[in-house]
Amino acid sequence: ITDRKKAKFELAKKNRQLNLAEQLSKIGYWEWDIVEDKIIWSDNLYRIFDLEIGTPIHFERVIEAIHPDDRQMFRENAEEIIEKKRFRKFMHRIIHKDGNVHTVELIGELTLNTKGDVIKMIGTTQDITEHRMSEIKFKGLLNSAPDTMVIVDQQGVIQFINMQAEKMFGYRPQELIDQ
Fold first, then answer.
1. For the chain, N or C: smaller number of CB within 10 Å?
2. Based on the number of CB atoms within 10 Å of its own CB, is 154 exposed (0-12), middle (13-18) or buried (19 or more)?
3. DSSP 3-state assignment of 68?
């Protein structure tokens, strides 16, 4: 009995730590049973979406929380993930009850049945609003710089060019990014 109580106490302690880590990192866990359209969210994911904890969640309820301009893209991403049987991370915006818009990023993995059909997705959603705002400000500063700037990663692959580089080289960013 003592060992059971110890194990139960340790499990409760680990759950509190996990919940705290989710809150601090602005991450929430989700699981979607596609066959039954049953979705399970961690408490912190409810907080990220500004919904009351325990609100019944299904695919269309998730769609309602997404920014209207991103809903079609979200549906297309879900369809593509199921069709191609490969999860690729993506971002979209959500709207809180007070009208504030937040940007979230989804990362996940799939569960297939014996026929190879996708039956479940599990993953995390992280509120990256502050990160995106910083990124936008940074890009704005780079674009307003009078000098030509090309930013590459450690492998020498172009990640960003500013407007002066675009003018100097005559290429649009889409033509150079990832080259």
1. N
2. exposed
3. helix
Q: What is the DSSP letter of 156?
A: S
pLDDT tens digit sequence for 10-48: 777 777 766 666 666 688 999 999 999 899 999 999 999
Distance CA 158, CA 176 (A): 7
Residue type, 51: L
Q: What pLDDT is stored for residue 8 in this prediction?
A: 83
**Cβ(165)–Cβ(150) under 8 Å?**
yes
Length of the chain measured in residues? 179
Give the tokens for residue 153.
């990663």
Nearest residue to 104 via CA among 76, 123, 84, 122: 123
User: Could you identify the residue written with the tokens 């106490």?
Assistant: 9
Q: At 90, which helix (H) or strand (E)? A: strand 90-95
**Number of Cβ atoms within 10 Å of the Cβ of 57:** 20
Q: Is there a contact between 125 and 108 (Cβ–Cβ < 8 Å)? A: no
Written as one string, the DSSP assignment of 69-89 is: GGHHHHHHHHHHHHHHT----
